[in-house]
Structure formats: structure tokens, C-alpha cells
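S.,

Sequence below, as promised.
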Amino acid sequence: MENQTTSRIPLIGEKAPDFEAISSKGKIKLSDFKGKWIVLFSHPADFTPVCTTEFAEFAKKQEEFKKRGVQIIGLSIDSVFSHIAWLREIEKYFGVKVEFPVIADLDTKVARLYGMIHPESGTTSTVRTVFFIDDKGIIRAIVYYPSSNGRNIDEILRLIDAMQFSDKHGVATPANWNVGGKVIVPPPSTKEEADKRMKEDYEKVDWFLSYKKI
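The prediction came back faster than expected:
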């Protein structure tokens, strides 16, 4: 049974729950960004050291997200006034302006909807969560981080590149893949296809693992 602080976490492959919320950019809905990929991420609190560095790095990479058709949305359970003051400090000290909305989730409505509050983490604030939502509104990946360690924004971009590339070309990507790297050809599903694969012009480790360049 769900308690006051937890809720079911939406799963990969499910439709991302829609919501309406107040943000640093005014009232927004998730459905406002229909047709775009979305990176919805939560942070424990404004004016905290690790979160400050993360926001500065997200802001520095804003154009990279835009190139990929990705909308960034931040969230914490601080007030919109706290968000405004904090974002002004980030601009002041890091020389970057946070252009994406930051949800002021004081009633924890969105945080509960996305399972961002973990009581056993030792705090009632939202944990570091990243939801990757595709242009069809489907949750494609979820990543959690401890409060002590900041996210790698380049890795978030890399995963978006990989998922978008897989969607476009119908292939999988290996560990540590980056744009321009070799991709994995879908494996054979029958004995006959496996025999045929061994004769095909791919870079093969064995019948179940073959690479190609696109």
C-alpha cells in the first residue's frame, strides 16, 4: 500500500504521466512539449552545492539538447521564489542563464507521480532522478543518483544520441558507444538465420554478436 511519501514509479515503456505545475517559466504541462523528447530531472534542493554545479552544466549544454529536439525540465520541492533567487545566483557566479523551466513542486504532486521521493534516502526531498521521455510520450530510460554525486551531463546527451540513433536505424549500440561508432546488428532468431549470419559481410564476434558502421 502506498504511503504519504511514496508512489509507484512509472516504468520504462509506459506512457509518461501528464501533469500541470507551476515553474520558473510559469504554469506548464508535460503535454505542452508533445512531439519533443524530454529530460525531466529532479534535484534535492535549491542552493545546495552539488545541485548548483549540475544546473550550471545543464545550462552550458542547453543548445546541445535543443539540437537533439530535447526539452529539459527541472524539479524540486522548493518554492518558485527560491528557484528564481537560485537561478539568478547561478547566472551571477557561472555566467550562464538557465532557460529551461524548473518546477516548484511544493505539494510534491509531480514528485509523487514520478516516484521521486525515497524515504530511505534519509531526506524528504526529491532524490536525483532523470526520466528520458521520447517524442511519443513514452518513458525510455530512468537513472537515479545518490545525493552525494552529481550527474554527468555528457552521459545524458550520449544516451539520448544512442536512443535516437537506435530508433532511426533499428540497431542497438554497444557499451561506451558514441556517434560515429560501430553499432550492433539485431541477432538472428532462428538456426537458419544464424548460419546465414556467419556468411554475411559484418564484423562478427560470433553469430549472436555482429557489428557494422552506419
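Confidence is low (pLDDT under 50) at residues 1-6.

Coffee later?
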